């Protein structure tokens, strides 16, 4: 499956309408981003059940700012509208596959419970 280009106009729809979205924050001038691109594309072909998306941080500065992206490439994984992974740096193929596997194996009920508990602790 080819990657989806995310913009501020389609971001919410793509993330809300899909259970598992990988997002690559990148820029055309970034050497590590160009090195990571074929690794990311390869993973998208091996995992056709997942949505692979890209955010061009130059064209979509508001999105990059909203997620406090300070280093690129940054990979983020969103499951069930919860960001479960975010890390800057170009991952090698083996590491990317490992991260995808770990994200697939998360118990999202436990993740949501943990997020709720953290929010409650911050509020009270």
From TrEMBL:
Keywords: Disulfide bond, Electron transport, Redox-active center, Transport. PROSITE patterns: THIOREDOXIN_1 (PS00194), THIOREDOXIN_2 (PS51352). Residues 1-105 form the Thioredoxin domain. The keyword Cell membrane does not apply. One of its GO terms (cellular component) is cytosol. The keyword Electron transport applies. One of its GO terms (molecular function) is protein-disulfide reductase activity. Belongs to the thioredoxin family. NCBIfam families: thioredoxin (TIGR01068). This is Thioredoxin. It comes from Streptomyces beijiangensis.
């Amino acid at each position: 499956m080819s990657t989806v280009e995310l913009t501020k106009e389609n971001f919410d729809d793509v993330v809300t309408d899909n259970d598992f979205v990988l997002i690559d924050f990148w820029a055309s001038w970034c050497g590590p981003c160009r090195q990571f691109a074929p690794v990311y594309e390869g993973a998208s072909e091996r995992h056709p059940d997942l949505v692979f998306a890209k955010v061009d941080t130059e064209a979509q500065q508001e999105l990059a700012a909203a997620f406090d992206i300070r280093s690129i490439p940054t990979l983020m994984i969103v499951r069930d509208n919860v960001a479960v992974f975010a890390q800057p740096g170009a991952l090698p193929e083996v590491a990317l596959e490992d991260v995808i596997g770990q994200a697939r194996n998360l118990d999202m009920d436990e993740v949501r419970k943990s997020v709720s508990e953290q929010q409650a602790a911050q509020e009270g």
